[in-house]
Design goal:
10 helices; alpha/beta; ten-stranded mixed sheet; seven-stranded mixed sheet
């Protein structure tokens, strides 16, 4: 998703185009870029780390990828059927093994491994590892969900989005890995990006497809070097991201709950196409073959491309197979699912790309576009919307969290030339206003359950109240939006921190329900849930103490993370207010597993 109106696939965000204007065209060759993944594969059987995900009270999913032979590199499609042993233990030294077993993997699933372990104890810390061909994987740490009837446990989740490899070092993931207080990491989409490495050509507007600081050309380049289209491409891109040591460590230390947005396939995707997709018969496409310079590839039918992207995503991410649990009526492949945290909260993770209607302009000539409010246009498919709204109105929990890809709140354009009532971005829920109103009505009807929307995508940090109507003065829920891990924010798009701050001030002036908006920092957010309130802390990447106002924090490999701001919502208020400081210690701790 882009921060402003959808751009051409041959046009970079303004900040990237300006930054790249003084560099040499080219980047790494496909062969050189491929070396990063191949070196990781050949560094050992388990060169891509371990991960866990989708925790419930009694089940955990464990993940890894093995390289059984030197030729069995990601995307190669070669290699033997391979046996992989796994263990889950109560202690890090594995003196008390709780569960163990053996699975097989092969080239058909790119030698990735998934194991769902059942019969576990709620709210309990475990350790896991894999063995294959005499090698032992790193030891992962994970835990089951704090979900016990009649018991209220602490609940603390990090939520993140928009982690572009060429956009910067993954310092924010390093900050997450260092924390010991998280129940899970919720990744809301754009885990990877589809773009290639070709930077903008000096003086040629819209040239190149690289996205990120020019200083990282030749340092953090994508593999493959061109835009990803084939199954091999998507597998290689996932593998490249899993070579990053900070991302590996964040996966090793915490269970993750993941869902995709658009860039896991391609930018601004909808049900039958995407802004960044050219059909095979487009007249201006050209194929880039092995060893040739980076360029634009003929991309075939979109639905076929999307199916390949989904396949690689399911292979390489710690997510359960679709509808293998909690199956519901749906269109296409079911990825939405719900997590329960005792009597305290539920988390509905929604998916809003696979079945959405095509985006439309915000205006038509000199009038607002009536298609924005057309009840025949949808963001989630109607079956998923019914699942979400009935889950919200039928809940008996104190809080209902909604893991969501694009900004839900109404956001009017702050541009002086905007028409009265013109929304900022039709790729958000504002582009699907019938669905937006349906969910707002469900929030208003949710009784004693307070709705909290957790959102990514827009590369900035927000705390928002959700009025039922823009002029109503009420609020039926709240929304928190996390910053990007690395992807360009307001500063990069507008060209300076001062311009970013002016832009965010204009947004708040035009949209007074946006209580907090910060467009410079990159990092993550942490939400803590208690019976009395939710609190969201924003943590930003810092270079020598600077959050990015005067320096480029994303290009500093030694950057750190620091607390920026906190916002709270008291139970029953459905409003947000400034917090008094960063979160303290948890209310309780996961128990230690017992030997079975």
């Amino acid at each position: 998703m882009t921060l402003d109106a959808p751009i051409s696939r041959r046009t970079l965000l303004q900040g990237t185009a300006v930054a790249a204007a003084a560099v040499t065209v080219g980047g790494l060759t496909p062969t050189a870029a491929r070396a990063t993944v191949d070196d990781a594969a050949r560094s050992g059987i388990f060169g891509f780390g371990v991960a866990s995900g989708d925790p419930t009270a009694t089940e955990l999913l464990l993940w890894t990828r093995v390289t059984p032979t030197p030729k069995s590199t990601p995307g190669s499609g070669v290699g033997p059927v391979t046996k992989v042993d796994w263990e889950l233990a109560a202690d890090e030294r594995f003196t008390r093994v709780v569960r163990h077993g053996t699975v097989r993997t092969d080239a058909d699933r790119d030698h990735t491994v998934k194991v769902v372990v059942s019969g576990l104890t709620p709210y309990t810390r475990y350790f896991f590892r894999f063995r294959c061909k005499g090698a032992t994987s790193p030891v992962g740490r994970t835990q089951t969900a704090p979900d016990e009837a009649g018991v209220t446990h602490a609940l603390r989740l990090a939520f993140v989005s928009c982690s572009n490899y060429t956009g910067g070092y993954f310092t924010a993931y390093r900050g997450l890995a260092a924390r010991d207080d998280l129940d899970a990491v919720l990744h809301l989409g754009d885990y990877l990006y589809e773009y290639g490495n070709d930077p903008a050509e000096p003086g040629v507007a819209g040239s190149g497809d690289r996205y990120g600081p020019a200083a990282l050309i030749g340092v953090r380049d994508h593999d493959p070097a061109t835009e990803i289209v084939s199954l091999q491409d998507y597998r290689l891109r996932h593998a490249l991201y899993k070579t990053d040591p900070d991302l590996q460590e964040a996966h090793r230390r915490h269970p993750w709950i993941v869902i995709f947005d658009d860039h896991e396939v391609t930018n601004d995707a909808y049900a039958t196409g995407a802004e960044n997709h050219e059909q095979q018969d487009d007249p201006d496409t050209s194929y880039t073959g092995p060893g040739e310079p980076a360029g634009i590839r003929a991309e075939g039918e979109f639905v076929a491309r999307r199916a390949l992207a989904y396949r690689a995503y399911l292979e390489w991410m710690p997510i359960r197979e679709p509808a293998s649990w909690q199956p519901r009526p749906h269109q296409g492949t079911q990825f939405f699912r719900r997590f329960v945290f005792g009597d305290l909260a539920e988390l509905s993770v929604i998916e809003t790309r696979q079945n959405r209607s095509q985006q439309v302009p915000t205006t038509v000539g000199t009038t607002l576009n009536p298609a924005l409010a057309d009840p025949g246009r949808h963001l989630p498919e109607p079956q998923q919307m019914t699942w979400l709204t009935t889950g919200l109105t039928g809940s008996h929990k104190a809080w209902h969290l909604i893991g969501n890809q694009t900004v839900f709140a109404r956001v009017f354009s702050p541009q002086p030339t905007a028409l009265p009532g013109q929304v900022f971005n039709a790729d958000q829920w504002d582009g699907y206003q019938a669905d937006q109103r349906t969910l707002l009505a469900a929030m208003a009807a949710s009784g004693d359950t307070d709705p909290v929307v957790l959102t990514g995508d827009i590369h900035s940090s927000w705390a928002i109240e959700l009025p039922s109507e823009p002029t109503s003065g009420d609020s039926v829920g709240v929304e928190f939006v996390c910053p990007s891990i690395t992807s360009d924010g307001f500063k990069e798009v507008t060209g300076s921190a001062a311009a970013a701050q002016a832009a965010t001030a204009a947004f708040q002036l035009r949209n007074p329900w946006v209580r907090y908006l910060e467009g410079v920092g990159h990092g993550f957010a942490v939400i803590d849930v208690t019976p009395e309130r939710v609190q969201t802390d924003f943590w930003f990447v810092r270079s020598n103490g600077d959050k990015g106002l005067a320096v480029e924090v994303r290009t500093d490999p030694d950057a750190t993370v620091g607390f920026e701001s906190s916002w709270t919502s008291a139970k029953g208020s459905r409003r947000v207010t400034p917090g008094t400081g960063p979160l303290g210690a948890r209310g309780d701790q996961p128990r230690t597993a017992r030997h079975h």
